[in-house]
Amino acid sequence: MSVFSRRAATASVESPEFVGMAGRESAIIGDSMAGATDAPLGSGEPALRVQRASVEIGGTRILDDVSFDAAPGEVVALIGPNGAGKSTLLSVVTGDQAVTTGAVEIAGRPLADWSLRELGRRRAVLQQQNGVFFPFTVREVVAMGRAPWQGTPRDADDDRVVEESIALTETTRFRDRPLPSLSGGERARASLARILAQETGILLLDEPTAALDLRHQEDVLRIARDRARAGDCVVVVLHDLSLAAAYADRIVLISAGRVVADGAPDAVLTPALLGSVYEVEVEVIRHPVTGTAIVLPRRATEPAIESPKHAATTAAIPSESGESMCVSTLEETP
User: Does the keyword Transport belong to this entry (predicted)?
Assistant: First the structure.
């Protein structure tokens, strides 16, 4: 019996706490399977498609006639202001939010026609927040990603896949700690390891970089980029427009529940369009090495520190990898 099976047996998989922690894929052990569903997508076939989807909640229209698709081998970033409908659109694709009108397809098949177990083998979901109320260790949480493959020949790979996912997300150091004891960034990396262990062809990521430091933000999106190169489809909600420009093949800009632009980063990330949607003037400059867009708000205020009395000093401190790095500080001079 796998780690997941042993520990899951001690908690009700119907409880909201358990589902919130491990995601929908961990609550499908008893779901019936109507045949193998992990066959690769056909050539040129979208991995997922949303057609004219609208969502009304409490009389308020959250999404309004939204259409978009995403293909294997592609990273699609969903961007837009707070409350624009990005997370709602992602939840429509995952099946967690029903559409009022419109249609959603996974691999050319209506979303409603897939069982939970089948969906668990097609797409993995990294939610924006996961409530954690059980003291599962990081390794046990990562092993939950293997739930859709229980009872199939692929469950023989469970231990290998779990260990590879832990190594890839750099969670080895705290693999045996209970998830509730970790920082927000550490929990985010453990959750990413879980969905990588799920081994699906579609990754749906809701603000995966929100709790992460600078290096781990880059690491997460490099992983997403690598998965796309390997043929997977990645849809990611991002607030950092410069990260979207650096790692996405396409950007879908959403405002007030509608898609206002869908295209290559350079076509979407223009000062005029972003200024109109975000209601702030921005500058778009080029990264000096990669040439990708960097989006900066136009600021009229002076810097907070402009005194010649402050001189920079540096100190060597160990990094998480064990190597030393220099850190600059400000020191007042006479």
Answer: yes
